[in-house]
Amino acid sequence: MSAVWPSQVSFESASPEIVQSFEQLLQEEKIPVTASMRQQLEQLYWPMAQWISARQHDKTLVIGINGAQGSGKSTLAKMLERLLTEGLHKHVVSFSIDDIYLTRQQRIELAEAVHPLLKTRGVPGTHDTRLGMDIIHACGSGDSTQCQIPVFDKARDDRADPYRWKNVNTPVDIVLFEGWCVGSIAESEATLKAPVNQLEQEEDTDVRWRDYVNQQLAGPYKELYAMLDYLFLLKVPSMDKVYEWRLLQENKLRQLHAANPDADNNIMSEQEIRRFIMHYERITRSNLDDLPQFADVVMTINNEHQIDAVELKA
């Protein structure tokens, strides 16, 4: 049984054109087009899109989507963007917190100034939060202009060349802002002291790295997340599943670059992925414990990577 959007409102069924567009997106994402997925469209994704659309009135609506690595947050954002745009005729902009990573050179400089672990992208402090706020502000300013959203090339571990950036015509009806730490909150100083894994124990012995990351969450990231109108949470079963699903992601990335073996890329081995995930582990665990209390929509994912429960608190 697929999850059902929890609303007493009677939503209209998806038209054949919407179904066709949804199935095309599934094919693009390499997701099997099954009867179960069609059922999820009617019972979950299409009502969700209508629920979002109904809350957008005379100003830009900003939806944050949080989910651990490999949870499916990027795919969810693409589904909602497609349904809101083609099915409900909204002007939608979707971008990831990955798109506003600091450049590789900026992270190298940050690592030299603060802590070596900040060279690795991902944790709060390695994004340009002011850029993120500027993008959201431009989308909702009401002025008809154009802004650019950077694109981050994970294989190069750096921003893509500007010609690959997204050009956005503003104003915008709905912004979908997704990322593994979107909406995350700072911890108490007391909880920072005990390491949660080998990386923290061996490479952050003075707690300087995780203290800096926590300060970023309490400061500039809190200011960025204050721009969200609603927060959607994809709640994964456990950290073990985060490792498993992140490995699947890297395998897909490896396949994409297999056609050009001489290309400059930074595809990671399984051992490198495990170390990489350790950078994220503390905040991911905190998200699993704390965010269900604060998120407006909580979607629980089972071990088979399916949404099997939805709690609507907004």
Please name the defining characteristics of this protein:
45% helix, alpha/beta, 11 helices, two-stranded antiparallel sheet, 6-stranded mixed sheet, 314 residues, Rossmann fold
Description:
With 314 residues, the protein is α/β, with parallel strands linked by helices. It has a single domain, classed as 3-Layer(aba) Sandwich (Rossmann fold). Helix content is 45%, strand content 15%. It contains eleven helices and ten strands. The strands form three sheets. Strands 2-7-1-8-9-10 form a six-stranded mixed β-sheet, with helices on both faces. Strands 3-6 form a two-stranded antiparallel sheet. The protein has a two-stranded antiparallel sheet with strand order 4-5. A hairpin with a 4-residue loop joins β4 (152-153) and β5. The chain is globular, with a radius of gyration of 19 Å. The two termini are 24 Å apart. The mean pLDDT is 92.
Summary, kept brief:
This protein has 314 residues and is α/β, with parallel strands linked by helices.
**CATH class bucket:** Alpha Beta
Fourth-tier CATH superfamily name: P-loop containing nucleotide triphosphate hydrolases
Low-confidence segments: none
| Beta strand count | 10
Order of helices and strands: HHEHEHHEEEEEHHHHEHHEE
Helix share bin: 40-55%
What's the architecture, going by CATH?
A: 3-Layer(aba) Sandwich
Number of helices: 11
In percent, how much strand structure appears in the residues? 5-15%
Shape: globular
Number of domains: 1
Biggest sheet descriptor: 6 strands, mixed
Order of strands, widest sheet: 2-7-1-8-9-10
Class by SSE composition: alpha/beta
The Cα radius of gyration reads 19 Å
